[in-house]
Specification:
Layout lengths: L2 H30 L9 H17 L10 H24 L5 H36 L9
Helix pairs in contact: 1-2, 2-3, 3-4
């Protein structure tokens, strides 16, 4: 695979997916919630794109196979929270709404660990299922 294709496949496409999801969530919130003033502006969209790229870069932590999956998830979580802090708290709000940022970090952390727990549950079930499928077969008796 060429270097450009690797960059597109492993970095740009995931960043675009995250950006699209963020824009849909904020658009639905603004439209269905009756808060059109919270619809993302072009500047906000660019900040969301930067955050999406940071999260896509943080996803590369999952490719570090020598590190235990539990620690990879913790490192990814730290990278996402640091990206959130740098982009939204420092760059966008300039520390003006630290309480709101703290609340968003708590919500983001709860969601993150909820989905991480689901991942570990499904991973454990699939691993146990694979183990059950490879039962011992007697080679000497038919």
């Amino acid at each position: 695979m060429s270097p450009l294709k690797k960059i597109l496949f492993y970095f740009v496409y995931p960043a675009c997916l995250y950006f699209t999801i963020i824009m849909i969530v904020f658009g639905l919130f603004a439209t269905l919630g009756g808060f059109p003033q919270y619809a993302p502006t072009l500047t906000a969209m660019l900040w969301f794109l930067l955050f999406s790229m940071a999260v896509a870069a943080a996803d590369k932590i999952f490719f570090l196979k020598k590190i235990n999956i539990f620690f990879r998830v913790l490192m990814h979580y730290a990278a996402v929270i640091i990206s959130f802090l740098l982009v939204f708290v420092v760059a966008v709000s300039n520390y003006s709404n630290a309480g709101g940022a703290f609340l968003l970090i708590i919500v983001l952390s709860i969601l993150y660990f909820f989905f991480a727990a689901l991942y570990f549950i499904f991973r454990g079930v699939s691993t146990a299922k694979k183990r059950d499928e490879t039962k011992y077969k007697n080679q000497f008796r038919g």
